[in-house]
């Protein structure tokens, strides 16, 4: 299954890119985060991250679908 | 009608204030967040704000909608900057109008706190010593990396 990932802030720095299209066997955001955290050496535990799928906040156990746009949101610092 | 905006250009507070006007309102309270030249005992030279636009606008709208209901406001508006900001520039503007001042003061405070807590916007601080770092919620930089980020490993 092919999904698109967007990266922001320190996660974009770590990944060395702001987006990628990825072929994955991950079924849920939880599995996908484990996969990319290993690859890009992300150090945030999932408990400090929020998930967005196709522009809306999502739970960690939602089933991923072909073509989903997924964002793992590190803790925010606006204001 | 959208009440929350991201802006890549300086915030037009006069235009925003018009959006607060209501014949039933007895007053308005506004908050301006400015870029300061220090944080956590380090000299700061500028800030870069990055946002996940679609979700930031959705969350911002949700916060303002919740505030109008919770504090019985006549109106609520918020604008947050993106991009590179110099010291002294306005990073965020919040404005609310209400029948009475108690609700207006409380709502304005509540909105800026919720925006800082929920809206997917991140600041990258650039320090006088040439380092920089993205801030995450405990207010410490997670990475100390050159900007713009390259393809480092």
Description:
The complex is a heterodimer of chains A (79) and B (153). Chain A is an alpha+beta fold and 79 residues long. Chain A has one domain (2-73): Ubiquitin-like (UB roll) (Roll). Chain A has two helices and five strands, in the order βαβαβββ. Chain A has helices at residues 9-15, 29-40, and strands spanning 2-6, 19-23, 50-53, 56-58, 69-73. In chain A, strands 2-1-5-3-4 form a five-stranded mixed sheet, with no helix packed on it. The longest helix of chain A has 12 residues, at 29-40. The mean pLDDT of chain A is 96. Chain B is an alpha+beta fold and 153 residues long. Chain B has helices spanning 13-18, 53-71, 101-118; strands at residues 4-7, 27-34, 38-39, 42-51, 75-81, 83-86, 90-98, 121-127, 132-136, 140-141. In chain B, a hairpin with a 4-residue loop joins strand 8 and strand 9 (132-136). Chain B is elongated.
Summarize the structure.
Chain A has helices at residues 9-15, 29-40, and strands at residues 2-6, 19-23, 50-53, 56-58, 69-73. By secondary structure, chain A is of the alpha+beta class. In chain A, a hairpin with a 2-residue loop joins β3 and β4 (56-58).
Which labels suit this protein?
heterodimer, A: about 80 residues, alpha+beta, Ubiquitin-like (UB roll), 5-stranded mixed β-sheet, 2 helices, 5 strands, globular, B: about 150 residues, Aldehyde Oxidoreductase, domain 3, 6-stranded antiparallel β-sheet, 4-stranded mixed β-sheet, about 30% helix, about 40% strand, disordered C terminus
Helices and strands in order:
The complex is a heterodimer of chains A (79) and B (153).
Chain A: E1 2-6, H1 9-15, E2 19-23, H2 29-40, E3 50-53, E4 56-58, E5 69-73
Chain B: E1 4-7, H1 13-18, E2 27-34, E3 38-39, E4 42-51, H2 53-71, E5 75-81, E6 83-86, E7 90-98, H3 101-118, E8 121-127, E9 132-136, E10 140-141
Parallel strand pairs in B: 1-5
Antiparallel strand pairs in B: 2-7, 3-4, 4-6, 4-8, 5-7, 8-9, 9-10
Helix pairs in contact in B: 2-3
């Amino acid at each position: 299954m092919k999904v698109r990932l967007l990266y922001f802030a320190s996660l974009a720095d770590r990944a060395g890119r702001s987006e990628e299209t990825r072929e994955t066997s991950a079924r849920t955001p939880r599995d996908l985060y484990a996969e990319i955290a290993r690859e890009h050496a992300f150090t945030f535990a999932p408990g400090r991250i929020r998930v967005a799928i196709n522009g809306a906040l999502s739970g960690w156990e939602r089933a991923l679908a072909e073509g989903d746009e997924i964002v793992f949101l590190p803790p925010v610092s606006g204001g | 009608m959208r009440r929350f905006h991201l802006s890549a250009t300086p915030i037009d507070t006069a235009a925003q204030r018009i959006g607060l006007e209501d014949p039933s309102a007895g007053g308005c309270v506004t908050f301006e967040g400015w870029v300061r030249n220090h944080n956590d005992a380090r000299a700061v030279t500028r800030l870069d704000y990055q946002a996940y636009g679609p979700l930031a606008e959705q969350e911002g709208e949700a916060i303002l909608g919740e505030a109008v209901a919770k504090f019985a406001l006549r109106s609520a508006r918020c604008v947050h900057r993106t991009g590179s900001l110099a010291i002294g520039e306005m990073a965020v503007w919040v404005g609310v109008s209400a029948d009475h001042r108690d609700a207006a003061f409380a709502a304005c405070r509540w909105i800026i706190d919720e925006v800082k807590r929920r809206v997917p916007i991140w600041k990258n601080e650039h320090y006088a010593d040439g380092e920089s770092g993205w801030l995450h919620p405990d207010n410490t930089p997670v990475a100390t990396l050159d900007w713009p980020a390259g393809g480092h490993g």
